[in-house]
Amino acid sequence: MDRQDACEIRHARPEDVPGARRLILDTFYREFGYGYVPAWHADVVDLQGHYLDHPRHALLVAVHRGEVVATTALHSSGPAHPPHPRELVERYPGGTTAQLVRVYVRAEHRRHGLARELVRQACEFAVNEGGYQHLYLHTNAAIPGAEAFWRSLAEEVYDARPSGEHGPGVATVHFEIPLRRPAAV
Questions:
Q1: Cα–Cα distance for residue pair 75/55, rounded to 1 Å
Q2: What is the pLDDT of residue 138?
Q3: Sequence-ordered strand ranges (E) for 106-183
């Protein structure tokens, strides 16, 4: 992908929802190998209602030639217990925690900075939205490149791999991205 063939990165519009859902579901099935799990992925069924219609939530997309090729979402819920440790639920309560989710890029569009830019814009949204004290995320470090990517942007707060609490094949590491607010003028 060259500069003349660049992606448009923006907050999702209603017409982006089907393509975003397709990319997210493809990621669950093809990349993660476990498919759609209602308890974990309820937001995907109603991306419009969960992200576009909610003023404190956001769905960002990268669009290339009319196709959604990358996504990032943010919502105002902290981690859930179970499956995550109770101390993380207490540290990152819903309402004051912006949780970063659905950071997915189609394989042929990786290594062009799309995920990094989508995350940057999601962080900017969290700062500008106000009311958020933390930006939390978790990742499956068994996915190639995931752990290195997040370590370049975020601070680890809990590594669940030694406990194996999420089950075989799931190597969950929890991170926080510091919310940088502009200096008061």
A1: 10
A2: 95
A3: 134-140, 155-159, 172-177
